[in-house]
Amino acid sequence: MTSYLVRRVAGALVILMIISAITFYLFYAVPRDPARAFCGKICQPETLALIRHNLGMDEPLFVQYWHWLAGIFTGREFVQFGECPAPCLGYSFATQEPVFGAIVDRFPVTLSLTLGASVVILAFGIMTGMIAAWKVGQPLDKIASASSVVGASLQIYFVGPLLAFYLVDTLQLIPRPSYVPITENPLDWFTHLLLPWVVLSIIFTANYTRMTRSQMVEQLAEDYVRTARAKGMSSRSVFFRFAWRGAMIPIVTIFGVDLATLLGGAIITEQTFSLHGIGELAVRAVQNTDLPMLLGVTIVGAAAIVLLNILVDVLYAFIDPRVRLS
């Protein structure tokens, strides 16, 4: 297990370096000069050159990337901003604030949104799919299957404002979505994020309902399940003790892949409900051609996805005893 984790972490570091390098070099393919945006409409050539020097943009591209990469571990010294302690992701071209500090301030919003939606997806998606498989061919199965098709066709930017209008403005059943730190008031944290969780999870819950149902039906037709039934085990015991474990392996695998999509959905959800998370930073960085902020958000998002995928791989051994990590 230890050697496996070491290999996965080493591979994750390589992946993050590749992602950062690609993002860095693609940024300069955009025909827009961030230094000119700093300088304003009326900009003298010598002023523009000074700004480019202060931003470190007068050096070769690979040197700029190396300085950025080294700053994560050792910190950096900027002419304009002074010392930037490690982990240093630079300063925003648009706001001059430290990138790492901006991400840390907004990361709890995106983390709360993503984790809460994940709980809703796995709980309701798997539960509904298992109920449909338990009652396969019956009206409950048909209702769950039809509902999943409808849910999979909905979009965040359509469902979000619609539910907010009815549940928040008209019926006033829940408060308007916002972020309250869980350390300040756990109940307000839950109630203010409940609607964004539901909206973000609708499409995924529908997909996991269909996936769980199909996997459970397939597992119930396997030889080992028929053998368990032939030995006199009850249908309930066979369903939950044997078939459930086998069905969870592909679901957990796909969930690890869907984490990237879920993070992208969180960005759209943040924009829909005006939540000030990492999604807001990403959109603003693209609009302002803000390379340090764009790189910082990309690296943090990629690191979160890679880390969660490693945790998903480790879960395999606990879900199915046939799986062994060597």
CATH class placement of the largest domain? Mainly Alpha
Tell me the radius of gyration.
24 Å
CATH topology of the largest domain: MetI-like fold
Structural class: mainly alpha
User: Can you tell me the CATH architecture of the largest domain?
Assistant: Orthogonal Bundle
Task: Write out the CATH superfamily name of the largest domain.
Answer: MetI-like
Share of residues in strands? under 5%
List keywords for this structure.
2 strands; mainly alpha; 74% helix; MetI-like fold; 326 residues
Notes on the protein architecture:
The chain crosses the membrane at residues 9-28, 113-134, 146-167, 187-206, 242-268, 293-319. InterPro entries: BPD_transp_1_N, MetI-like, MetI-like_sf. It holds the Pfam family BPD_transp_1. There is one protein chain. With 326 residues, the protein is mainly alpha-helical. The chain folds into 2 domains: 36-88, no CATH class; 105-319, MetI-like fold (Orthogonal Bundle). It has helices at residues 2-27, 34-39, 45-54, 61-74, 99-134, 139-152, 156-170, 186-220, 223-230, 235-273, 278-287, 291-319; strands at residues 76-78, 82-84. Strands 1-2 form a two-stranded antiparallel ribbon. The longest helix has 39 residues, at 235-273. The model has no long low-confidence stretch (mean pLDDT 84).
